[in-house]
Every structure is written in structure tokens, then in C-alpha cells.
Design goal:
By secondary structure, this protein is an alpha/beta fold. The protein contains 13 helices and 15 strands. The strands form five sheets. The protein has a five-stranded parallel beta sheet with strand order 7-8-9-10-11. The protein has a four-stranded antiparallel beta sheet with strand order 5-4-1-15. Strands 2-3 form a two-stranded antiparallel sheet. Strand 7, helix 7 and strand 8 form a beta-alpha-beta unit. The chain is globular, with a radius of gyration of 20 Å. The protein starts with a strand and ends with a strand. Bound molecules: (2R,3R,4R)-N,2,3,4,5-pentakis(oxidanyl)pentanamide (0YR) and magnesium ion. (2R,3R,4R)-N,2,3,4,5-pentakis(oxidanyl)pentanamide binds next to loops.
């Protein structure tokens, strides 16, 4: 039975001083989250992912403390979905929410509930969700060649990730003010890595139609696996139109807050690689719904790692539509059981829970006042 909740906010430095994509420039990854205490020895941990902006991180933790906590105290944790419904369909919160702060707060709580459920069962969450040992889950690395790094650093980064660390798939950012520069960078990366490495590109919502159609059309020349978030995040008809006019598949989903949002993009044909993020949807519960929806439409799911894969690895092992998961190493060291990747393949977590238990020393080191 749930007895109390306690929120936290961690700001963890990124690998280098500052990284940027076409739209964001950050020095830290934010982890507003919650510890859920019970009348047993088990404590559930859940968090969402932000750009470490303390004021908005506090809106998330305030939402948990002031709105969700009272819906949870006294409840049993055996059915996260039941509690998810109680929180998601709570009329006063529905009125002010359904996307944004309230949903990211819901995500943190839902992940903590799954963590608890698997801790009670004394098994890693992927087992609770029906995952099997046999599956091979590939990691692709996004932490190479950010848009603020020059071409030499980009090449150095992607070579390190592939030749030294053994990744078979990497993602690079695009969306420079001058599109010719993007083309030169992609061409240089393809040349440096040869034809056996998968290259994903990510414009983080920067481009517009018809202005950027030319660069979008020539991505196919470099055998790019996908173009991610080519257009503005909410532009359903734009992505649908674009999908019909270019050969490169479209990936998106990291900025979508609900199953309904995904349904719109999927049914309009605007997405090929479906990218739910359990830290932005209402947690594992709703991310699984998106995976199932994608499966019905025979679309591959490649989750976006707002949690840096730490907890979504469980859902990814368990769901048949996922073979590839994004990884960024920024927060890995903070956990009791850090993720392990060997030559681009994830090892399976063994500790009970959702992988979200944070070591106390890092709670103190990176913790901010909630
Ligand atoms: C930095 N992954 C992404 C980072 C990343 C962003 O803003 O958050 O690039 O989330 O697009 O696919
Ligand atoms: Mg992205």
C-alpha cells in the first residue's frame, strides 16, 4: 500500500560542456521525479526528462505533490494501469492538462508504480511485461556530433562510436541555417563510416514545407535510415504530405503526449518509425499502448530516450515491435544498475524493478531544491 510520495529534481551534466541540436542548446539533463513509499520495504522510483530548467521542473514536481499524491495514498500498486486511469481521467487535472506538465508528471509517477510492481515480484520489469531472454536489442547512439560541433569533431565522434565502441547505428543532428552545410556533414559522415553503418538524421522540428523540400529530397543519396522530426511537431498534414514526396522514411514521436496524438500521425501516413517516449507520454502504461498501435499498423517502434534508455529498455525487451532503442550516456552512472552496452547491443538488466533506483550519492550530488 502506498503511504507517501517524495519528489526530487536532478540536473546531471551532459558529456561535454554544452550540446545543441537545431532547436535546443543544453548543459544539463533534468530529471524531475518521485519516490513512492509503501508499507513494505520497497520504494518505487520514477522520473521524466527535461532540459534542466528549474522553474519548469518544479511545475512537474509540484503537480506530483499537490495533485497526484492524494489520488495514490492508501492505494495498492498491483495494477499500475488502474492507477494510471485514476490519475489521467481525474476531472480537475483533465481540465488543465492532457499534454505537457501534467502528462510528464504522470509519466514519472507511472514509471515509479511499474518499478514498485516489479520490485514486489522480485524481477526486472522486462520479465513482468513478458519479455524473453532470447531477444537481441540494438542500441543506437545519439551522443556524437551535435550540431554545435564542427565537422572535424563530428567525424571524430562518429568514428569513436562505431570503430572503437562498436555501434552499428548512430544518429546525427541536422538543421543548420544553411542546408548545404547539412549536406556536406552527412556526406562526410557517410564517407567516414562506409556503407555498413546505419545513419539516422534528426532535424528536431526545424524545417518547413516547401522551403526545405530540396534537402529533404536529397537525403536518400546518403542512404539515411530515417529523417526524424523534419517538420514542426504538431504538423500532421505536413508530415503526411512529406511522406508521399520523399523516399527517406520519417521518424517522430518524441514530442507527442498521448496515444491520440500518435493515432493521428499513424492514420495519416505521416510516420514510419514510431518513437514513443514513456517519459513524455503518461509513462510505461501509455507507451505500451502506442507500441501496440504501431504493431497493428506493422510499423517499427524505436523509442525516444528521454530517460536515456534506462527504464525504456524494459518495455523494449518486452515489445515485439522494438528492435532498436536510442541511447545517450549522460545519466547512466546515477543508477543502482547502470545500463550496459557491448558493441551496440544492450545487456539485460537483472535487478528487480524498472531500473530507476538512483544511488543516494548522486541524489545529493545533482539534487536541486524542489
Ligand atoms: C537535446 N533525440 C533528441 C536532446 C534529443 C535532443 O535537446 O534532448 O536532441 O532529445 O532529439 O532524438
Ligand atoms: Mg530526436
Amino acid at each position: 500500500m502506498i503511504t507517501s510520495l517524495e519528489t526530487f529534481i536532478l540536473h546531471v551534466p551532459v558529456t561535454r560542456d554544452r550540446i545543441a541540436d537545431s532547436t535546443h542548446s543544453i548543459t544539463h539533463w533534468g530529471m524531475p521525479g518521485v519516490k513512492i513509499m509503501t508499507d513494505s520495504e520497497h520504494v518505487g522510483y520514477g522520473f521524466t526528462g527535461t532540459h534542466a530548467h528549474l522553474a519548469s521542473d518544479r511545475l512537474i514536481t509540484d503537480c506530483i505533490t499537490n495533485c497526484y499524491a492524494e489520488l495514490l495514498i492508501g492505494e495498492e500498486v498491483d495494477e499500475p494501469r488502474k492507477l494510471w486511469e485514476k490519475m489521467a481521467y481525474n476531472p480537475p487535472l483533465q481540465w488543465v492538462g492532457r499534454a505537457g506538465i501534467t502528462t510528464m508528471a504522470l509519466a514519472a509517477v507511472d514509471i515509479a508504480l511499474w518499478d514498485l510492481k516489479s520490485k514486489y515480484r522480485e524481477e526486472p520489469l522486462w520479465k513482468t511485461l513478458g519479455g524473453k531472454e532470447e531477444k537481441k536489442l540494438e542500441a543506437y547512439n545519439t551522443d556524437g556530433g551535435w550540431l554545435n560541433f564542427n565537422q572535424d569533431m563530428l567525424i571524430e565522434d562518429v568514428k569513436r562510436l562505431t570503430l572503437q565502441d562498436g555501434y552499428k547505428s548512430i544518429k546525427m543532428k541536422v538543421g543548420k541555417p544553411d542546408s548545404n552545410e547539412d549536406i556536406h556533414r552527412i556526406e562526410a559522415v557517410r564517407k567516414a563510416l562506409g556503407n555498413d553503418v546505419r545513419i539516422m538524421t534528426d532535424a528536431n522540428g526545424r524545417w518547413r514545407l516547401p522551403d526545405n523540400l530540396e534537402i529533404l529530397s536529397c537525403l536518400k543519396d546518403f542512404d539515411v535510415t530515417w529523417i526524424e522530426e523534419p517538420l514542426w511537431h504538431d504538423d500532421v498534414s505536413g508530415h503526411s504530405e512529406l511522406a508521399k514526396s520523399i523516399q527517406t522514411p520519417i521518424a517522430l514521436g518524441e514530442m507527442l503526449y498521448s496515444l491520440a496524438h500518435f493515432r493521428e500521425f499513424i492514420s495519416s501516413g505521416g510516420v514510419r518509425f514510431v518513437q514513443p517516449d514513456a517519459t513524455r507520454l503518461g509513462g510505461i502504461t501509455e507507451a505500451l499502448d502506442v507500441c501496440n498501435l504501431a504493431q497493428e499498423h506493422q510499423l517499427p517502434v524505436t523509442p525516444h530516450a528521454g530517460d536515456m534508455a534506462q527504464t525504456q529498455i524494459h518495455m523494449s525487451i518486452a515489445h515485439p515491435s522494438i528492435e532498436l532503442l536510442e541511447f545517450i550516456p549522460w545519466i547512466t552512472h546515477c543508477f543502482e544498475e547502470p545500463l550496459k552496452i557491448d558493441s551496440g547491443i544492450f545487456s539485460y538488466p537483472q535487478m528487480p524493478g524498472a531500473g530507476t533506483t538512483i544511488r543516494n550519492e548522486y541524489m545529493e550530488m545533482y539534487g536541486k531544491k524542489v
